[in-house]
From TrEMBL, chain A:
InterPro entries: ABC_transp_permease. Keywords: Cell membrane, Membrane, Transmembrane, Transmembrane helix. It is found in: Cell membrane. This is ABC transporter permease. The chain crosses the membrane at residues 7-25, 31-58, 70-94, 100-124, 136-155, 183-203, 269-293. GO terms for molecular function: transmembrane transporter activity. Its main location: membrane.
TrEMBL record, chain B:
It is found in: Cell membrane. It comes from Fluviispira multicolorata. Keywords: Cell membrane, Lipoprotein, Membrane, Signal. This is BMP family ABC transporter substrate-binding protein. It is a lipid-anchor. Belongs to the BMP lipoprotein family. The keyword Cell membrane applies. Pfam families: Bmp. InterPro entries: BMP_lipoprotein (IPR050957), Peripla_BP_I (IPR028082), PnrA-like (IPR003760).
Length: 342, 348
């Protein structure tokens, strides 16, 4: 039943979304075929789908990690901005780091930067009682401000008019796999999957993970059991932030090779949808992240291959899928209704 | 019986083969004249740069034998741009037209990967064997605009509002400034920008604030080059003119890229037109007639790439004397009597 629900929700959402395209004057079957072929049609297409999925898996993990201790992390966007900026800064400034260690070094910088950004919200929540939804949203704006300051005034690439930082030194570059025919898929792909598995182990097989879940399930019971609420919340937001910050590894080290202002098409916010579809399960997030990646990729091809439908359809589809998956009352009615009949 | 089957088999096979050949030949003929236009974030209705490109594309589509599959796509966010260019470069389109400096770097890379694909790049000067780069001489146009503003200004104070602070826009500013100083060395010019990030192209509220404060400091003409933010300056000038009806203190605005004179007739002094439409039209024309050439093409006054807009909407604002002066300066720029400073060469 746990698996049936998200799958059914996806099918319902897709169906309704395609119905919308019918009213926009397109053949829904045709739109569906474009989605399918654009996601998986060639090795390049598949590579692009993976490229879109990688950051979504990480931001999905970030949101669900915070959710485990009852916090709502809307700030994945700001955290990934800081992470990517840190990775790009490390890559541009510390050029002498040897090739093998360099990407790891940049990854640590990205995770730390994202983690600190998330940790600030965690600290404000735990020590000052500021609601994390408000603070994370506001930190998003601050991150965007810092990013544009650094990009435009400190590390501006003088060879282009686009607002982007100096390219990272070659030591830092993650080679993209030739198999994917110039789609920027690198070993960062494995990073997302490995991190997802690690998060699962952390949450369900370690004492710290247990504490986080305990705080999320019942705060007063957890504090009675001598779990420090504030420590757990700060730590949890730090981890959530560093997960989002890791987006910088794939996006900077293998895709753009520099920090581009406004590079993220809202990965942080789509991550919320990814986490919800997977109902917070880290392993399921791999699949829901992949699904949303395919939607994103398919949507940008709609722009190319149809006349009336633009890439905004992916937002419609995401919304419908989330509506379908979160319609609790409806699902209980359907499921309980069946039980009565049986 | 076996022989019959064999013959049937051969027949069917050759039939299908020829069918296949016909279809593929047909589609080959179609591929050749498919034109794909990639617009930058402003989209086809930005009343400015992208719209001009789109108009040229539409005109070419109605005048030449171009397949109906020809299409335009709009880049909504930066990460889409490499993907669009890469997907369209797969041989589907005969000619790809990419608008805006945002797309330029990526087209440069893709052009090396797909040497048979032909591209037109608007607003760039990338040299590749399969790219025609249209490099508009914004500084020349802006110089003339600066001169016009200085001729028409009654307060001897004029302003420039740019979108994002980048070399391309600074090129406008420098041309404008030196044009104004050419007419009146003592003229006061206020130069300001909406912002430093791409959001600056789409922030009419801030542009309006900037414009209002400039007008309140007695500037009476503002030249605006700020994409979708320009709308704010147009709003500001109508607000100012609503408050005071005296003809002597009337405020003016100067549009950019497209001819924007029609937006507020009589208040838009003129527009610095970049003739993206006609340059795209002629690129498609060359392509269809198989005369397509590549390389960097400069589009200045001499090549009718930039010009000032003079039409029924702003006719009453200029006396014959003004027109003579303006045309004289234009001729002098073409004949290089006037040396217009280029930010791309001076600024660095």
């Amino acid at each position: 039943m746990n698996i049936i629900r998200p799958i059914a929700a996806t099918i319902i959402g897709l169906f309704l979304g395609l119905l919308v395209t019918f009213f926009a004057g397109e053949n829904p079957l045709n739109v569906f075929l474009i989605f399918a072929t654009s996601g998986f049609g060639s090795t390049y297409d598949f590579g692009m789908t993976l490229t879109y999925s990688m950051p979504l898996i990480l931001t999905g993990l970030s949101v669900s990690m915070a959710f485990k201790s009852g916090l709502f992390n809307i700030g994945a966007e700001g955290q990934l901005t800081m992470g990517a900026l840190a990775a790009a800064t490390a890559g541009a400034l510390f050029t002498s780091v040897p090739a093998f260690i360099a990407p790891i070094f940049a990854g640590i910088c990205a995770a730390l930067a994202g983690g600190i950004w998330g940790g600030i919200a965690g600290y404000l929540k735990a020590k000052r009682g500021a609601h994390e939804v408000i603070t994370t949203i506001m930190l998003n704006f601050i991150a965007a401000g810092i990013a544009s300051y650094v990009t435009v005034y400190l590390l501006k690439d003088p060879n282009t008019q686009n607002p982007q930082t100096i390219p990272i030194s070659p030591n830092y570059k993650l080679e993209t796999f030739a198999f994917f025919d110039s789609a920027p898929v690198s070993s960062a792909l494995f990073l997302s999957v490995i991190v997802a598995i690690l998060v699962w182990i952390f949450l369900y097989r370690t004492p710290l993970g247990y504490e986080i879940r305990a705080v999320g399930s019942n705060e007063s019971a957890a504090s009675t059991a001598c779990i420090s609420i504030s420590k757990t919340q700060i730590l949890n937001m730090f981890i959530a932030g560093s997960l989002a910050g890791l987006v910088g590894v794939g996006e900077v080290l293998s895709r753009a090779e520099c920090f581009k202002l406004d590079f993220s098409p809202g990965y942080g916010f789509t991550g919320i949808a990814v986490a919800f579809l997977a109902r917070g399960n880290p392993i399921a997030i791999i699949f829901s992240g992949f699904l949303f990646g395919a939607l994103q990729k398919g949507a940008s091809d709609l722009e190319i291959f149809t006349h009336n439908v633009t890439s905004d359809l992916s937002l419609v589809l995401q919304a419908l899928i989330i509506l379908a998956v979160s319609a609790d009352g409806l699902w209980e009615k359907i499921l309980s209704g069946k039980k009565v009949k049986l | 019986m076996q022989l019959f089957n064999f013959v049937k088999n051969i027949f069917l096979k050759s039939f299908f083969f020829s069918l296949f050949a016909i279809i593929s030949l047909n589609s080959y003929a179609e591929i050749n004249n498919k034109i794909c236009l990639i617009l930058d974030k402003g989209g086809k209705d930005d009343k400015s740069f992208n719209q001009s490109a789109y108009e040229g594309f539409l005109k070419a589509q109605s005048d030449f034998k171009i397949t109906k599959d020809s299409k335009y796509v709009t880049v909504k966010e930066d990460s889409q741009s490499p993907h669009f260019i890469r997907t369209l470069s797969n041989g589907d389109c005969g000619l790809i037209i990419a608008v805006g400096f945002n797309n330029a770097d990526i087209v440069g890379k893709m052009a090396q990967k797909f040497p048979k694909q032909r591209y037109v790049l608007v607003d760039s000067s990338i040299k590749e064997t399969n790219i025609r780069s249209l490099s508009f001489q914004e500084h020349e146009g802006s110089f003339l605009i600066g001169a016009i503003a200085a001729i028409k200004s009654k307060t001897a104070k004029i302003g420039f509002i740019g979108g994002m602070e980048i070399p391309l826009i600074k090129r406008f500013a420098l041309g404008f400034e030196s044009g104004a100083k050419y007419i009146n060395p003592k003229i006061k010019i206020t130069e300001t920008y909406v912002g430093v990030s791409p959001a600056a192209w789409n922030n009419p509220t801030k542009a309006k604030e900037l414009a209002l404060s400039m007008y309140n400091q007695e500037s009476d003409i503002i030249f605006v080059a700020a994409g979708a933010s320009s709308q704010g300056v147009f709003d500001a000038v109508s607000d100012m003119n609503k408050k005071n009806n005296k003809a002597e203190t009337k405020k003016f605005v100067i549009g950019v890229d497209s001819n924007q004179n029609y937006l507020i007739p009589g208040t838009v002094l003129t527009s610095m037109e970049k003739k993206v439409n006609s340059k795209i039209y002629s690129a498609v024309k060359d392509f269809i007639e198989n005369k397509f050439t590549t390389g960097v093409i400069t589009c200045g006054f001499a090549d009718d790439g930039v010009d000032w807009a003079y039409d029924t909407y702003n006719k009453q604002l200029f006396s014959n004397e003004d027109i003579k002066k303006i045309n004289k300066i234009k001729q002098d720029i073409i004949s290089k009597k006037i040396n217009v400073p280029d930010y791309y060469k001076v600024g660095k």
